């Protein structure tokens, strides 16, 4: 039941992310006068709909995404373009005519997309990915500044009575022997007043195994006790105190750094996407564990979200109360998903947004070159000729999705929590 909470959070988060992505396309398109016939949240049968200013706004039953229909994406064929193969229309010409018919059949209010200027086309196509980028930034800021970063606290989580090292050595906990207990807050160690955990670590290293006066606060009252650290074979000193955890609001610079690293890491994965998917296929057939940085489908993301919420529920049953930590982790998960949507959609291949942006940039370059040579305006780029590439990319995306879904069920990624 606890795991279902994480899955629901991710589903709602993804749905809102996709809905806002499409708004990022729709708003500038309508602002520039393009015909936008429909904005839909979900797929399948209609739950509710309303038409306003020439656009039909729809909510559908299958809430697994959404779309916006901007009409007239394909320009008519230029004079001299081959439109027939024998007695039949070419695939590109069929698409062009269907695009033209949409402007009539939908009783469109506005101009076809292909008539927009190059800067307008780029703005419309960038609107969706940029929306995901902004969502990623907001979620990262809320997680790191609002909820905070886990930081070692001077209020102790534990002071064990007995300490057992990895090599089997066992000895009484020095702090416990001195009278220090879980929940105490360390105020000074020797002559050093401590204000954060790093101060305490430095003070312990300075005093070594000498008997040291330690001031702690318990129930609002300060007490002083003498602790003699235990020196182990590697020369370090064991005091037997375990830091508590508190959440501190991150600085803006920290948020920016984390967000930038998220973008760089995501871009690195997308650049190596074929290799990453091949590694998943290899794990699927060999049973080899997948790394934490393995690419995942929505199924895998949902599974990770379930593990996060289940872990938080388990900790609560054990006396822990760090629900904020689980919320922060889920927000960072959604932030990374939106960053992935931003980067992935900028791949310069149709039908992705990056493919339309690349087409607009080519159109602008061609027009500029024509002006420099005093040639006639060559007009909009005939993106219909790229349909074979579009269908090939769509097929690859479908196959990749199926592979990742199967892998996320058979050999799922397990993150340390």
Protein model, in words:
The protein has helices at residues 2-31, 91-105, 118-147, 174-178, 197-207, 252-271, 273-286, 298-317, 323-345, 353-372, 387-410; strands at residues 36-52, 55-70, 84-85, 88-89, 149-158, 162-164, 170-172, 185-189, 192-193, 212-218, 221-227, 230-231, 237-238, 242-248. With 417 residues, it is α+β, with helices and mostly antiparallel strands. A four-stranded antiparallel β-sheet has the order 9-8-10-11. The chain has a two-stranded antiparallel ribbon with strand order 1-2. Helix 1 packs across helix 8, helix 6 (252-271) packs across helix 9 (323-345) and helix 7 (273-286) packs parallel to helix 11. The longest helix has 30 residues, at 2-31. The mean pLDDT is 88.
DSSP strand content: 15-25%
Computed structural class: alpha+beta
Task: Let me know the largest β-sheet.
Answer: 4 strands, antiparallel
Q: Approximately how much helix is present in the residues?
A: 40-55%
- H and E order: HEEEEHHEEEHEEHEEEEEHHHHHH
**Major sheet: order of its strands?**
9-8-10-11
| Quaternary structure | single chain
Overall residue-averaged pLDDT value: 88
Number of E-type strands: 14
* 3D shape: elongated
Number of continuous helical runs: 11
Enumerate the spans where pLDDT stays under 50 for 5 or more consecutive residues.
none
User: How many angstroms separate the termini?
Assistant: 18 Å
Rg: 30 Å
């Amino acid at each position: 039941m606890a795991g279902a909470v994480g899955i629901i959070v991710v589903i709602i988060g993804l749905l809102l992310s996709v809905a806002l992505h499409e708004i990022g396309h729709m708003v500038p398109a309508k602002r520039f006068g393009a015909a936008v016939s429909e904005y839909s949240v979900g797929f399948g049968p209609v739950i509710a709909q309303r038409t306003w200013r020439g656009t039909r706004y729809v909510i559908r039953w299958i809430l697994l995404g959404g779309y916006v229909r901007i009409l007239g994406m394909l320009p008519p064929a230029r004079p001299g373009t081959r439109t027939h193969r024998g007695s039949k229309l070419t695939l590109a010409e069929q698409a062009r005519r269907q695009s033209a018919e949409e402007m009539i059949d939908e009783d469109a209010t506005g101009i076809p997309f292909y008539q927009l200027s190059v800067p307008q086309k780029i703005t419309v196509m960038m609107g969706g990915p940029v929306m995901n980028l902004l969502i990623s930034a907001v979620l990262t800021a809320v997680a790191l500044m609002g909820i905070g970063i886990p930081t070692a606290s001077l209020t102790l989580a534990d002071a064990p009575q007995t300490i057992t090292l990895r090599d089997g050595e066992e000895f009484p906990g020095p702090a416990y022997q001195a009278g220090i207990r879980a929940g105490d807050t360390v105020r000074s160690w020797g002559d050093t007043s401590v204000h954060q955990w790093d101060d305490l670590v430095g003070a312990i290293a300075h005093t070594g195994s000498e008997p040291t006066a330690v001031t702690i606060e318990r129930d609002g009252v300060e007490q002083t006790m003498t602790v003699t650290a235990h020196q182990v074979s590697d020369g370090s000193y064991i005091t037997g105190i375990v830091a508590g955890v508190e959440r501190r609001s991150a600085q803006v610079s920290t948020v920016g750094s984390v967000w930038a690293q998220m973008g760089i890491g995501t871009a690195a994965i997308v650049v190596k996407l074929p290799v990453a998917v091949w590694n998943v296929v290899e794990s699927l057939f060999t049973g080899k564990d997948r790394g934490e940085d393995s690419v995942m489908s929505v199924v895998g993301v949902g599974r990770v979200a379930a593990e996060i919420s289940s872990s938080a529920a388990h900790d609560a049953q054990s006396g822990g109360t760090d629900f904020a930590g689980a919320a922060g982790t889920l927000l960072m998960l959604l932030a990374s998903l939106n960053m992935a949507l931003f980067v992935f959609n900028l791949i310069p291949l149709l039908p992705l947004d990056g493919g339309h942006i690349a087409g607009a940039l080519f159109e602008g370059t061609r027009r500029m070159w024509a002006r420099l040579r005093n040639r006639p305006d060559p007009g909009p780029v005939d993106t219909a000729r790229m349909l074979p590439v579009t269908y090939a990319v769509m097929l690859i995306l479908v196959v990749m999705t199926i592979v990742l879904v199967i892998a996320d069920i058979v050999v799922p990624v397990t993150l340390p929590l």
